[in-house]
Amino acid sequence: MIGTPEMLEIIPPDTPADIGFHVLPRLTGRMIAFPIRDYLIDIGTMENYRRRKPPGPDFLRLDLTMLRGVVFDMDGVIIDSHPAHRLAWKAFLESVVEKPATKNLILSSMATSARRSWSTSWGTGSGADCRIWKPKGRVAAKA
Amino acid sequence: MTFLGVLCGRAQPRDLEGMLRLHRDRRPAATLGVYQVPDPRRCGIVTTNADGVIEASWKSPSTPAAIGRSQA
User: Fold this and answer.
1) How distant, in Å, are the alpha carbons of A55, A131, B17, B34 from that of A84?
2) How far is A84 from chain B (nearest CA, A)?
3) How confident is the model at residue B30 (pLDDT cuts 50, 70, 90)?
4) Interchain contact, B34 vs A33, CB within 8 Å
5) What is the count of structural domains for chain B?
6) What is the ipTM score, two decimals?
7) Domain around B49
8) Is residue A49 assigned to a domain?
9) What Rg do the C-alpha atoms of chain A give, in angstroms?
10) Which chain B residues have a beta carbon less than 8 Å from that of A53?
């Protein structure tokens, strides 16, 4: 899914809000569909997650200059469910912590709250100057 | 600002780049990657018009009419 600010602003203030129930139905007529014809697997179950293919060389063709931020899950956790997540997180770490970011650094700081990860690894208050976008009427989850 | 959301799926970048081109050309509020599955009752589904505009979406479809003309 490729989204825009219009999509973010339509997220209702009530929590929890589900993208399938509360966001997409409100955008009908303003969204378009792109048929995916290549490999795709739903990794919503552990069985499928274990069956997934590792990222291939095609992945390196992604234009890294397009990365402008990291999107976190509802509770502020970065989910390692797609290579793009890891690349975005790596770019972020290298912009605020150290470059090059080692594999251990990347993996050890994922799958947990971003703020908790920063506090544990780099001290309380680290990452405080990073801008966190919050939709109207919503409150960021506490670490 | 344009952002990529991955919803429990894993697609190869060729798809992502094609999606991005389409998104930039058409400038919708969102572009959803969709694919056909044998049993859409297990997926969120959408219906589109001839131009690919999404006319309806269901998180957990139970309407046979919706399933009959849907892509997951």
Assistant:
1) 10, 20, 12, 18
2) 9
3) very high
4) yes
5) 1
6) 0.80
7) 35-72
8) no
9) 17
10) 10
Is residue A138 one of the residues assigned to a domain?
yes
Cβ neighbours of A71 in B, within 8 Å: 3-5
Please check whether residue A2 touches B, CB under 8 A: yes
Query: Would you say residue A13 lies in a domain?
Result: no
Nearest Cα of chain A lies from the Cα of B63 at a distance, in angstroms, of: 15
- The answer to whether residue B10 is domain-embedded is no
pLDDT digits (tens, 9 = 90+) for A122-143: 566 655 655 555 555 544 444 3
- Please give the model's pTM, rounded to 2 decimal places: 0.56
Sheet with strand B3-4: strands edge to edge: A31-35, B30-34, A2-3, B3-4
In a domain, A118, yes or no: yes
Two structure tokens written together for B46? 């959408």
Number of Cβ within a 10 Å radius of residue A85: 19
Query: Is residue A34 within 8 Å of residue B3, measured between CB atoms?
Result: no
Query: Which tokens is B45 given?
Result: 């589904």
Residue A14 token pair: 């009530």
